[in-house]
Structures are given as C-alpha cells and as structure tokens.
Amino acid sequence: ATVILAAVLSGVSSGPREGAGGPAYLIQGLDDLPIDKIGSIVVGTGENAVKLQRMGKNFVVANKDNYPADTKTINELISKCADIKTTGAPHTTDPANHADLEVTEEKARSVVKFFTPDPNSSFLTGVAVGKSTETAQGTYIRLLPTDKVYITLESPWMRDRAIDYIDQELITAKQEDVNSITVTLKSGGYTLKQDQDKAIVLENVPPGKKLKTSEAKSVLTALTDLRFEDVKKSVGGLVFDDQYVCRLNDSLVYTLGVAKKDDKTYVVCKADFTGERPSKVSKGESEEELKKKEALLLAYDKAQEFTAGHTPWIYEIADWKAKNLTKALADLLEDE
Predict the structure, then answer these.
(1) Got the DSSP string for 211-256?
(2) Mean pLDDT of each 10-residue bin along the chain, 336 residues long
C-alpha cells in the first residue's frame, strides 16, 4: 500500500498502460518527476550496490564517504530508466519465470531502485534488466517491485561502480597559464618557470648540466588534466612529506601534498589566491583592464570554492601521474 501510494502521489505509474498499442514507456512519468521527489537511488545489489543519497539539493555517493555525486551522471541514470520502452503487453507476470529470464535481483545484469525522500525511504519504482530474448532481438526487463516482465528492444547499460558517479577531474591547469612549478622532495627541490616565449627554464642549473626539455614539460604540465582513481576521507599511515606547488598567471596557486603507501600514491590539495582582489571598478577603465580584474575575481572565487570542496578529502592518483608530481631533479638534467 505504501509503495502504491508513493507512486500515485509522485505521478509515477506501475508500468505501461495496458492495452496501449505499440511501444510504451516502462515507467510512466519518471522523466517528469521533480528531482527532489527522489530521496535515494540504489544501483546493483548486495555488498557491491552503489547508493546515491540525497543531501540537500544534490546527491552524494554513500559508498565513498558521502563524496558529492556528479549531477550530470545522476541525470543520465534517471533519463536512461525513463527512456526504456517496451514492445507491448507484459511477457509474463509469473514469478516462477523470473530466474530463467534473469530478471531476479540476484541474476539481473543491472538493477536500479528509486526511493522516496521521506524518513521511511519508501520504494518508489525500479528496473531489473535481464537476458536477451531467444531471438536476440530484445531484452527481458522487470518493472520493480511488480512481477511484470516486459521485452524492450534496447538493452540499457547502467554504470555499476561507485566511482562512476563521481566527477574524477581534480585539477585542470593549461600549460600557457602556468607561471612556475616548485617541487619539494626529501631529496631536495627545484623550481621550473616559463619565460615570455613559453620556454621552460630551471632555476640554478648546476654547472656542466642542461635541462631535459621533455622531462621538464611533463612536470610543468602535471596538472593539465589531473584525475583521481579513488577518494576517501581517511587513510591510515600517510605522511604527505612531498609537495608540488603550481602558480598560475592569475595569482591562483595549487598546493598538493603527496604520500605513498602500498604502491599507491595519495594527494591532498588546496588552492590559494595570492594576488590582490580587485575591490571596485572605476569609470574610464579600458576593456583590457576590466578583463584583468574579472580574471582576478574569478581566480579568487575559484580558490575559495576549490579549497572548501577538496580540503577534507584524500585522493588516490595513477602512478604515472604521481611520477610527474614527484620527479627528482636528477631526472631533469643531462650533461651539456
């Protein structure tokens, strides 16, 4: 009764209208359902199920210490479920056939469940995607929580990993925007800069040595597209004693602490605005001056937002990316 009531109140029906001719949407009204009427979404079953929980206006990934979920990916998931069309009337309504059609929660290739935002978290609706039909021209799909199994011509593919619902892009800093890079390691440190012609130079080059341009570029561009593999709020035994600092031309500075454990590399990061924040716009300022002030204001806001969003988290990054963040000075030099 609770499920039926929730479905009625939310405008989501229990399946295609019986007797309707031709293809029909499996879940009537899901696409029109306001996002705030969905309290949580569960993808998959058992220990590996992904739980997406509403927190305020947005969703978080409960499996990842409530890390913010990517809104675009959440919307794509809802749209995929809303766009499922059946070929007609139910193929079967007998639960005894579910296992053979692989539409039980244990056998289904994909399971998605939607729950209401009320304290009881009532089951709203969902789907269990089964096997292909014997003619391979359709897929069996069950509308949860009913026993009705339909055939859909397209087999929806659902992301089934917790990390899939997170925006893994951490920092994007274009090479032309980089002013300098400072790497501080236990073995020593160095600073790379770009001159007016965008050539990479090393401060205090040792006598008889010269800079390997390709190696230096890999360090300077380490934040061009820095993505993470996993995220956690705490990892025991980490010591962030290596540091990578990237200074941009707009006075935005990214600072990353780097630690290693069990052949994995972790980073913590923050952003600072080191320039003078423009306070007002004066009459008669040129368009170029206004653009410079706008860039500084954007950099200031970005630093505040970045630090607030990333300070509590520890990110695991790929090994090849980590090498560029912690490359030793000796690896950048060769004999003249």
Answers:
(1) E-HHHHHHHHTTTTTEE-SEEES--TT----EEEEEEETTSEEEEE
(2) 42 54 76 74 94 94 96 94 91 96 96 91 93 89 96 90 97 94 94 90 90 95 96 94 95 96 95 86 77 88 94 95 95 92
